[in-house]
Amino acid sequence: MTENDERPRNESGEYVQEHTEEAVLEVMKPLEPYMTSEIADELGWSRRSAYNVLSRLHENEEIRKKKPEARRVIWIRPE
Q: d(Cα 62, Cα 15) in Å, to the nearest integer?
């Protein structure tokens, strides 16, 4: 860790999550299909961070997930 690390921390000194479900839902239009890379690019996140948040949203049944190919996932926000 560097001294210039300005990421926000909570009262316990732990890093606060910057990659939120709300941020993803704000950029997703209902019924529009998105690939993980599109969400990551739109938010300036890594693909892994975007995938993790999208997966949480899917687990909470807030978005749908389609897997048309082995290494491709499409995410859809319902109406």
A: 25
What Rg, from alpha-carbon coordinates, does the chain have? Answer: 14
Q: How far apart are CA 27 and CA 40, in angstroms?
A: 10
Q: Order of strands across the sheet with 72-76?
A: 33-35, 72-76, 64-69
Query: Tens digit of pLDDT for each residue in 4-22?
Result: 556 566 677 655 557 899 9
Helix (H) or strand (E) holding 5: none
Question: CB of 57 within 8 A of CB of 20?
Answer: no
- Indicate if the alpha-carbon torsion angle 10, 62, 53, 34 is positive or negative: negative
What is the tens place of the pLDDT at every residue in 26-60? 999 999 999 999 999 999 999 999 999 999 999 99
- Residue pair 39/24 in contact (Cβ under 8 Å)? The answer is yes
Q: Give the burial class of 73: count Cβ atoms within 10 A of its Cβ; 0-12 exposed, 13-18 middle, 19 or more buried.
A: middle
